Amino acid sequence: MAYQTPDLPYAYDALEPYIDQKTMELHHDKHHAGYTKKFNAAIEGTDLEKMPIEDIFRNVSRHPVAVRNHGGGHYNHSIFWTIMSPNGGGSPSGELKQAIERDFGSFDELKQLFAKAAAGRFGSGWAWLYLDTAGKLNICSTPNQDNPFMDVADCNAQKLLLGLDVWEHAYYLKYQNRRADYIDAFWNVVNWQEVARRFKD
Ligand code: MN
Fold first, then answer.
1. Is position 27 within any domain?
2. pLDDT higher than 70, residue 37
3. CA 134 to CA 47: how far, in whole Å?
4. CATH value at residue 40
5. Taking CA atoms, which of 35, 76, 118, 137 is between 20 and 30 Å from 144?
6. Confidence of residue 183 (pLDDT cuts 50, 70, 90)
7. Ligand 1 center–CA 197 separation, angstroms
8. Which SS3 state, helix, strand or coil, does residue 162 take?
């Protein structure tokens, strides 16, 4: 069974005004669908077809670069759509809030560190909030379509909680060169319920 590009869990215009409809259409239907298609092509007829994708990532340096780029692209975007919501924004609660205060001091501090990681990624990539292999919440950024499950990454996750796509295709139509404004706007659509579910899952 080949990988599928999951449907958006809301309408293309649902994240307006923070993320515009045209960007969402192109980003989901063209960019994400392209990664999925090319990932399927890269693993077709190989042992990787039956391997859980996280297991592929743990040894991704041993596989063709198309597996890393398009597998990461498919997987990262599949997370990205779900951690945003038209009913998003606000702040985390419950156990996630407690863990954030334990590991960052405050939610504001998390936001500052995350924004710094997202703004500081040179070129294309992602910023992540993740549970590291020591059980601590942490933040990092990865280049291109890498993620913290990959053996090539500088950071190692047991769970990915929140990811922000900072490729220009994610924001350029609305924000042009103003990546920092896109990062600021992102907090208005973060689906903290889904982030908390990923944390407890
Ligand atoms: Mn993207």
1. yes
2. yes
3. 30
4. 3.55.40.20
5. 137
6. very high
7. 23
8. strand
